[in-house]
Amino acid sequence: MSASAPDVALMNTAHLYARVSEKERLLRFFTEVLGLPPREVTVAYVTAKQPMYAVTFANGAGLSVEFTDDALDDVLTQLRQLIGTAAIEQYPRAMQQLDGISQENFETVVRSQLGPSEFMFFHEINHS
Fold first, then answer.
1. Are 62 and 55 in contact (CB under 8 A)?
2. Which tens digit of pLDDT belongs to each residue from 4-49?
């Protein structure tokens, strides 16, 4: 299979994060399966200890990968510690406890559920 094959393309540019332990295997995949030579990319905003790599498809779309020991699960755990969780089903009762349903009481209840980042997690979908 080569990069010019019509079934090996992206419509847009994409960026991935992968564990450092998977680096060699993923770079071999780019080269041996996709026929795309990965190139090391140095950009000022990437502060990872490992270099970033990228490949370019025949249609000009690109795929870049940063290798990090901070796996997605680790990043999500850190994120969840910084954001609050919306308990929307509890809003009416909480507002009644604050003297009734009103815009002011709604805002008070919502603000009480914000995390340290002042963001709130409303819903999560598990696609697995």
1. yes
2. 444 666 777 888 888 889 999 999 999 999 899 999 987 766 666 7
Instruction: Select from 73, 71, 40 the least CA-distant residue to 55.
Output: 40
Say how far apart CA 75 and CA 107 lie, in whole Å.
Answer: 29
CA distance 92 to 115: 20
Residue of 14, 90, 86, 91 whose CA lies nearest to 54: 14
Q: Could you tell me the fold of the domain covering 14-67?
A: 3.30.720
CA atoms of 27 and 9, how far apart (whole Å): 17
Give CA separation, 48 vs 21, 43, 76, 96, in Å: 15, 11, 18, 49
Map residue 85 onto helix, strand or coil. strand
The pTM is what? 0.50
> Do 119 and 101 form a contact (C-beta atoms < 8 A)?
no
* CA geometry: angle 68, 71, 73, nearest 5 deg: 165
Domain ranges of the chain: 14-67, 72-121
